[in-house]
Amino acid sequence: MSFIDSSFNVEIVYNFYLKFIAETLLYLRNFILYISLWIAGYLCVCCVVYRRYARKLPTRIRGALGAKRVLLVIAHPDDECMFFGPTIFRLCEQGAEVYILCLSNGNYEGKGNIREEELWNACRVLGVPEGNIYLINDTRMKDDPKVQWPVQVIAKLIHHHVEALEVDTLVTFDRGGISSHPNHSAVFYAVAYMFVEKNMPKRCTVYTMDSVNILRKYMGFLDLPLSFVLSSKRYFLRWTESRRVTRAMKQHRSQMVWFRYLYVIFSRYMVINTLRKINLADIELELEVDD
């Protein structure tokens, strides 16, 4: 009798595991099917948005800021390509006078002189004249994430160039600095300081580049629908246009290590820029979050 009971129990357990495995496989199959349908649908949306808004809209109104004289403030050589390439490309194409203020020569690895020349070469590819590039070489602002850049010094430099160049638009990093680099964030805090101290000229409109999460950051072209929905100020590049930004980035030969090639391939910032207009109220809110 015990032998029969034990055989019966084994059969029950065996049938239970068979049923469990069958239900698990069915669940996985349905899950993969739903995910595949979702991905296919999202890809279709990407294609529709690209064809409708990135290809067919006239260049003059495709995300235009309405700027005539623009000052772009960056922290290091190669920031202009890695993060702001679509903005620079489109502004130059729209006829704006673009100026670039770079706050260091990128001497973190002792290649400052090389990186200065690379900056000039990259800007030439993007369409920025050599005379519109201003590079600061100040020992207080070393290219080093461990060095805290003096906000007041940066603010004075920005204010001087805004006034001297009579710019109507300022573009720079947001609080997240796109890559969370402290030098990038220091530029934002300098702009915030100018607002708080009421040193920002009223004629100057300020935009910051949106920092996005790591998933969106490396979605490339696939971030297009989200960028369109979440931001009203955006610059998209066609595939052929993005190749110029890639060529500009490759002028920074000293920085083109293997992971930078991956960045060029996958980063949304090579093809999409979304910007946010900020004012004193926005700055005060950002500073409250920090506190």
UniProtKB/TrEMBL annotation:
GO cellular component: endoplasmic reticulum
EC number in record: 3.5.1.89
Keyword Membrane: yes
InterPro entries given in the database record: GlcNAc_PI_deacetylase-related, LmbE-like_dom_sf
Keywords (A to Z) from UniProt: Membrane, Transmembrane, Transmembrane helix
Molecular-function GO term, any one: N-acetylglucosaminylphosphatidylinositol deacetylase activity
Transmembrane regions listed in the UniProt entry: 31-50, 257-275
Broadest EC class assigned to this enzyme: hydrolase
Ranges in coiled-coil conformation: none
Family membership: Belongs to the PIGL family.
Protein name: N-acetylglucosaminylphosphatidylinositol deacetylase
Organism per entry: Papilio xuthus (Asian swallowtail butterfly)
Taxonomic placement: Eukaryota, Metazoa, Ecdysozoa, Arthropoda, Hexapoda
